[in-house]
Design a protein that fits this description.
Helix content is 80%, strand content 0%. The protein is mainly α. The longest helix has 26 residues. The chain starts with a helix and ends with a helix. The chain is elongated.
Length: 128
């Protein structure tokens, strides 16, 4: 499980850097300042959670079962939260109104919060 989590963390971190550079350079000419800030929010949260997963993959403070649960919550949280933000921020370029996907963003945020909460619970109940 640690390898899967760590590889996912690296891939999320790498794509966050690519998307951040893409936003700062290629999208800068096509999006409004507000849309760029929104896009950047997705990138930041993706990177934060890439680092979170990197920690999760390397820590011994959490059981394997909890690692799997946290991993799934964070992975789907990033996909829903950051993914929906990327789509919503670039609708002027794509011409597709992703507004109905707006409900996915808070669901993703809730999954991210739950991932952190499970980690907190596991650390607090550890009696070492």
């Amino acid at each position: 499980m640690e390898r899967k989590i760590t590889v996912t963390a690296v891939l999320l971190g790498m794509t966050a850097i690519i998307l951040g550079a893409f936003g700062a350079h290629a999208l800068k000419k096509h999006l409004t300042v507000e849309e760029l800030v929104t896009f950047e929010t997705g990138v930041k949260y993706q990177m934060y959670h890439a680092l979170f997963l990197l920690f999760l993959g390397l820590t011994t403070l959490v059981t394997e079962k909890s690692k799997k649960t946290i991993f799934q919550l964070v992975l789907f949280g990033v996909i829903f939260f950051s993914g929906s933000i990327y789509l919503l921020a670039t609708k002027t370029i794509t011409g597709i109104d992703f507004k109905p996907l707006g409900i996915v963003t808070p669901i993703g945020g809730t999954l991210l919060i739950l991932g952190w909460a499970v980690l907190l619970w596991q650390i607090l109940k550890d009696k070492r």
